Amino acid sequence: MRIGPIEFGQRPVFLAPMEDVTDIGFRLLCKRYGAAMVYTEFVSAEALVRDVKSTVSKLTISDEERPVGIQIYGRDTDAMVEAARIVEQAGPDLIDLNFGCPVKKVAGKGAGAGMLQNIPKMLDITRRVVDAVRLPVTVKTRLGWNHEQLIITELAEQLQDCGIQALTIHGRTRSQMYTGEADWTLIGEVKRNPRITIPIIGNGDIHSLDEADQAFETYGVDAVMIGRATFGCPWIFSRENLTFSDKLDILEELLRINVERIDEQRGIIHTRRHLAATPIFKGIPNFRPTRIAMLRATRMDELLGILEALRSDPSFIGCALRRSVLEEIE
Predict the structure, then answer these.
(1) pLDDT at 329 exceeding the cut of 70
(2) Catalytic residue list contains 319
(3) d(CA 209, CA 227)
C-alpha cells in the first residue's frame, strides 16, 4: 500500500489524529510499538495563520516517528491554503485535511465534519490545497452529516478527482458523534468502487489488531486507523505478548516524557487521560480508590509510587488506599 512516495507494505495500521492525545511523546511510543503511520493533533488553520504559539508548537515532529502526517482543519479556503503552505515547511510526509471532526466547537462552525453540509466548499478547499503544496494531500471524513445524507460513495469520487492521494473514512455520520456502532459496509462499498484508485483507510470501533485483521478481510480496505482505543494503550499496534509490568513501564515512560516536555503539573494532567482509559487495570479488585488516588496525584513521585505499588501487588494497593480515599470522598 502506498500514499504518494510513502510505501507501507501490506495491511498497515495507523494512529488516528486526536486533539490532546497524539502529541509527539505519545506518537513516538505508538511508532515504537508498530504504528505504520502517525498523525499530529489536528491543527486550526486560522490559528496557524495567526501564528498562535500553542498551535504552531503542534507542528513539531521528529524523524523517529516518520512517516508522520500533520492534519489541519478550518472553514476558510484561503486560511486552509496558507496553513497548508506553513505546514509543508514543517516537513511532514503528508498533509491531511480534517473534514470529519464532529465536536460542536469545530463542526458547529462549519469546519471538520461541518463541511459535510457544504460539499462545494469542501471540494474547493481540497482542490486548492492540493494545488498549493508538493506534499501528498489526504482527507479524513465521515459517511455523511446524518443517516438521511449518506453521501460518502459519491463524495469519495469527488475528492479523488480533486487530487487527494488517500481517503480515510470514519464509519459514522456527524450526527452520531461517537455513539452507536461504526458502519463499515459503506467503507467497503467505497473500496469496491472500480472508479476509486486511491487507498481507502477504514476507521471506527477498531479495538485490537485482531479486529483490524477482520476489517482487512471483510471490507478490503488498504489500511486501518485506530483512534480512541489507543488511549492508555500505545502498545495496541504490537503483536508482542507484553506483561502487566511491561505495560506499566510504558505508561511510566509516557508520564516522564510528558513531564519533561511540558512541566510536572501539566505533564501529569496530560497523562491522566491515558491512565484513566488504559485497559490494564480492568478486573483488579477494589481498584476504584486506587484510580481516584492516581487521578488526583499532583506530584510525579506520588504518581510513580502508586504505579510501582501496583506493579508489586495490584490487589494490595487497592485495599490499602480504600479507606483513606473513601474518607476523603465522604
Answers:
(1) no
(2) no
(3) 13
